[in-house]
Structure formats: structure tokens, C-alpha cells
Write a structure and sequence with these properties.
heterotrimer, A mainly alpha, B mainly alpha, C mainly alpha, B: 10 helices, elongated, C: mainly alpha, 10 helices, 78% helix
Chain lengths: 71, 234, 260
């Protein structure tokens, strides 16, 4: 351990403001990067679920492109 | 690619024809020809008014001001580069021809350079004099512009070809091409600055020459590919 | 290029793998189980690297404790460039082989790479305050990273502006390739313009000047951020696959399973 107390650790030898700002910013950006695709994915499933439910209620065949690649 | 039919014109005839047509069209509308030049002069007039009319200050910033004004003037002309050809269907004809797209694109860019980059180059020493540019920097500035503006026009051509079918072209085009202009700006300005402080400007000028030859060889392929996308899908 | 590639004698397995990789469905189904493991490894590496770097590494004799920003600044700056190169590689694959998956990866990498570029700029600027006494200085490296950010924004803007996804993908591919050829030219011209800058910290050719207790956490964080980047690109591409293939039967079936 390089620091004697937790207070010193937070102070970072007087540079605490800069160090913690950088790490906070990184945490925010990184969590945005990770959460955004998951959120998009969940919204997609919700939309599709609604679409399928409506299609099933009408007793219709869900429209699927027959020429779409299957593999 | 099919073999050219006997009735199809040779590449050289095609190149000449394209060049002649583009130049004729450009000179047919003198206002479009004059506007970037007028813009160039007006922007340069703003600097003494906005920064300082002091000869010492002006001579220090002259190379940078001239180059940035040239950059913006080039950018101004780019949006219309392929627009008319696209609207009247000429672009489709160009893309659908059996011959490679490379030569018509080179002709198109050469014609555009002759009506934008070349006049800017010729006008630069005059405006340099108005900005109190050191006399020994005049030639390096002109050489730099002569070598650098073709690169600007070609790189800008890629952006123009990529945005040809878009309604929101203008601002996006600037965002696409201005970062790519940075090396040309740096080299061009340094050549003039080196010369005005009595040093040999050959280094940056040679790099510009290298860049120009590379751009003339390689960039038309990118423009051709971008035009194909625009025509096939737009 | 495709001509040469097709005429080379590739082992059958490799050729099959390459063709299978072109299938978005294959990508979706194969990479699913990887994500938790990659994410766990990334969290472990970044956790150890960051705690070590923040609390246990000794302070720099010149910059004091502010140098600890390096443990996030260097990985971010490195990923900013790697992301652009990855986009250009995907662009080549898309233009030569018309592989749809490459376009999906390219579309995903652009905002992630831009985010890391922004992070590199922001942490560099914050680090600059205690080091140079000002938040912004026209240092060669900062300037090239700023231009890199503009290049990313251009690609994102172009993709947004073109309505048809296939056209957007190919246009972005061309721009990415032109950009990637320009990046070293921009970098060297800016370096040459401004010779006032610190030498690169983490060079492959020479031994790092820092003692191991200082650069080991950096190494851990670089590896960890790499995995983090991989996780976010894989996750993003998986979502992109679903969105673009939403009309195919396998995605519809997947939605039905999700509902059950």
C-alpha cells in the first residue's frame, strides 16, 4: 500500500480532483458503452413480442421473408 | 468488365471529351466560377479587420490565413461537384459505361481543379502582397498551393461522391473532408513559413509533391467506387 | 484482391470457417456463450490493474500521483486507434467479399471507438492541468487524437445520413479506408509540426522506462480494456444482427422463445 490512510488515498498528493475526475468519467463512458447495446436489445425483443402477439391474435401467419438467407 | 466494342471511343478520346465538356460547362456559368475566388478574397480581407492591420502581425500569419482561405474556398466548390451530373443523369451514363471509371473521374477532377485550385494559386501572391507576406515566401507559397490544391480537390472529391445523393450534404461534407486536409495544410504553411524565415522550403514541398502523386494515382479509385455506390443505390 | 484470395490454397477448415463467419446467425449463436467469460476476465483484469495502479504503485518522481491517470488514458488512446483500424479492416472485407457481418461490426465499432477517443482526449486534458498547468495545449498527440475524433464523427454522420443500410455500409467502408491511410500521414505531419511532446510511454521496440511495479498494472489494464472493447463490440454486433435480420425466421423464432 502506497498510502498511509484512506484520506491520503482520496487526496492523491493534492491531485485527487484530477485523478478521480478521470476515473469517474471513464466509469460513466464505459458503463454507457456496455449498457447501450443491452438496452437496445431489450427494446427490440419487446417490440417484436408486441408484433408477434398482435399477429397471433389475428390468427395470421407472421410475415417472414422466404428468400432471406437461412444459414 | 466486358471488352470494349469497336464502336466505343478510345480512353484518350473519352478523357478529352469529358475534360472539354466539364470546362465548357464551368465557363458557361461564370458566376459559379467566380464565387469561390470572391469568397477567397473576402475571407482574406476579414483577417486584417478582425485581427490586426499591423504589417508585422499580418506577415506572421499570412501563410496560414492564405492556406485556410484556400481550404475553405475549395470546400465551397465541392458540394456542386457531382450534383448537376447526378441530377441530369450524366453520372449514371458515366458509371454504366463499359470503360473503367478511373479516367473520366480524373478528367472531372482535373477540370474542377483548373477552375478552382489553379486560379487560387495564381491569385495567392497578389493577396500575399496585401497581407505583407515576405517576398521570398511568394514562390514557395505558390508551389505549395499548386501541389496541395490537387490533393484537396481529390480528397474533397471522395467526400462529394459519398454525399452526392444526400439532402444534408453540405455540413456533413465539411466534417468528412476537413480532417483529411490537415497534412496538406501543415506542409503548405510550413513551406511558406520556412521560406519567409530564410530557410530552405524544399522538404515540405517535396512531401507535398509525393502526396500529390500518390493522391492522383490512388484517390480516383476511391471516388469511382463512391460514385458507383451513389448511383447503384441512390 | 478477392481474385488472389480465392486462388490461394487455403486449408479446407479455414475456408469453411471464413464462409461460416459471414453468416450473422452463426455469429449470434457462437458468440453468445463467450460474453460472460470475456466480461468476467475483463472485470478481473481491470479491477486488479486499477486498484494496483491507484493504491499500490509508487507515485511518479516528477508528476506525483497525477500520473495514475495513465492507467486509463493509455488503454483508451490505444483502443481509439485500434477501433479505427478495425473499422477499416471490416470495410475491406465488406467491399471485397460483400460480407454483411463486417458491416454490422463496422456500424458497432464506430460509436465505441468514438467513445474511447473522447475518453483519451478527456483524460489527457484532465491530466494536462496538473502537468502543464492548463487543460488544453496544442500538443502533437492531443491534436492527432482530436482529428481522429473528427474522423469517427464523420463516419457516424455519414452512416446516419444515408438511409439504405447497404449503401451506408459501403460508403462508410470507403471513408474508413481513406481515413486509415490518412491516419499515419496526419500523425506524422502533426508530430513534425509540433516536436514538443512526451515520447510514447508504451513502445514495443524499447524497454519501458517505468519500473515493473508501475507498468505491470498498465499492462493489466491494457489487456482488460481490450477484453472490454471485445465484449462491447460483440454485444453491439449481436444486437445489430437481430435488428437487421428481424424479418428472418430464426430471429422470429428467437423472439418467440424469449416470450415463452
Amino acid at each position: 500500500m502506497n498510502f498511509d490512510s484512506f484520506g491520503e488515498f482520496l487526496a492523491m498528493g493534492g491531485h485527487g480532483f484530477y485523478v478521480w475526475w478521470s476515473y469517474l468519467l471513464t466509469a460513466v463512458v464505459v458503463s454507457w458503452i456496455l449498457v447501450w447495446p443491452l438496452w437496445r436489445r431489450r427494446r427490440f425483443f419487446e417490440e417484436q413480442r408486441g408484433r408477434l402477439r398482435r399477429a397471433d391474435a389475428l390468427g395470421q401467419q407472421t410475415e417472414v421473408e422466404s428468400n432471406a438467407p437461412e444459414t | 468488365m466486358t471488352a470494349p466494342l469497336a464502336s466505343e471511343p478510345s480512353l484518350w478520346v473519352l478523357f478529352r471529351g469529358q475534360l472539354r465538356r466539364d470546362l465548357k460547362l464551368a465557363f458557361g456559368q461564370p458566376s459559379e466560377l467566380a464565387n469561390p475566388l470572391a469568397f477567397f478574397v473576402v475571407v482574406i480581407t476579414l483577417f486584417p479587420l478582425g485581427v490586426s492591420p499591423e504589417p508585422g502581425v499580418l506577415s506572421g500569419m499570412a501563410p496560414g490565413v492564405l492556406w485556410i482561405a484556400a481550404l475553405l474556398a475549395t470546400l465551397l466548390g465541392l458540394e456542386a461537384l457531382f450534383r448537376r451530373d447526378r441530377d441530369d443523369g450524366t453520372l449514371e451514363q458515366m458509371v454504366l459505361r463499359a470503360q473503367p471509371l478511373y479516367l473520366p473521374v480524373v478528367a472531372r477532377m482535373l477540370a474542377h481543379w483548373m477552375v478552382t485550385g489553379l486560379p487560387l494559386t495564381l491569385l495567392a501572391p497578389l493577396l500575399g502582397g496585401m497581407l505583407n507576406l515576405a517576398p521570398e515566401a511568394r514562390l514557395p507559397l505558390m508551389l505549395g498551393l499548386a501541389l496541395g490544391t490537387p490533393v484537396l480537390v481529390l480528397l474533397g472529391g471522395v467526400g462529394a461522391a459519398l454525399t452526392v445523393g444526400l439532402r444534408t450534404g453540405g455540413v456533413l461534407l465539411a466534417l468528412l473532408v476537413l480532417p483529411l486536409f490537415v497534412p496538406v495544410l501543415i506542409l503548405g504553411v510550413s513551406a511558406a513559413e520556412l521560406a519567409s524565415s530564410g530557410l530552405d522550403p524544399a522538404g515540405p514541398l517535396l512531401w507535398l509533391a509525393a502526396g500529390a502523386s500518390f493522391a492522383i494515382t490512388a484517390v480516383p479509385f476511391a471516388i469511382a467506387a463512391a460514385l458507383r455506390i451513389g448511383v447503384e443505390t441512390g | 484482391m478477392k481474385y488472389i484470395f480465392d486462388r490461394l490454397r487455403w486449408p479446407d477448415g479455414l475456408r469453411r470457417l471464413w464462409h461460416r463467419m459471414g453468416s450473422p446467425r452463426w455469429f449470434y449463436e457462437t458468440t453468445g456463450p463467450w460474453v460472460p467469460w470475456l466480461a468476467a476476465a475483463a472485470a478481473l483484469l481491470i479491477g486488479v490493474g486499477t486498484v494496483w495502479g491507484l493504491a499500490y504503485a509508487p507515485p511518479d518522481y516528477l508528476q506525483g500521483d497525477s500520473f495514475r491517470i495513465i492507467y486509463i488514458h493509455v488503454p483508451a488512446a490505444y483502443l481509439a486507434q485500434a477501433g479505427y483500424i478495425l473499422m477499416a479492416i471490416c470495410g475491406v472485407v465488406l467491399l471485397v467479399w460483400r460480407m454483411k457481418l463486417a458491416d454490422m461490426v463496422m456500424a458497432t465499432v464506430a460509436p465505441i471507438g468514438a467513445a474511447f477517443t473522447f475518453l483519451a482526449l478527456a483524460t489527457g486534458s484532465i491530466w494536462g492541468k496538473p502537468t502543464w498547468g492548463t487543460y488544453w495545449i496544442w500538443d502533437a498527440r492531443i491534436t492527432s487524437v482530436l482529428i481522429l475524433l473528427f474522423l469517427y464523427l464523420g463516419i457516424m454522420g455519414l452512416r446516419r445520413a444515408i438511409e439504405r443500410p447497404e449503401a451506408a455500409g459501403r460508403a462508410c467502408a470507403i471513408l474508413a479506408i481513406v481515413g486509415v491511410i490518412n491516419i499515419p500521414i496526419i500523425k506524422y505531419s502533426v508530430d513534425w509540426w509540433m516536436t514538443l511532446h512526451q515520447p510514447a510511454t508504451f513502445s514495443v521496440t524499447s524497454a519501458p522506462a517505468m519500473p515493473p511495479i508501475m507498468w505491470l498494472p498498465l499492462l493489466l489494464n491494457v489487456l482488460g480494456f481490450n477484453l472490454l472493447f471485445a465484449v462491447s463490440v460483440i454485444q453491439g454486433t449481436r444486437t445489430e444482427v437481430l435488428l437487421r435480420e428481424r424479418r428472418t425466421r430464426w430471429v422470429t423464432d428467437l423472439c418467440r422463445q424469449e416470450r415463452a
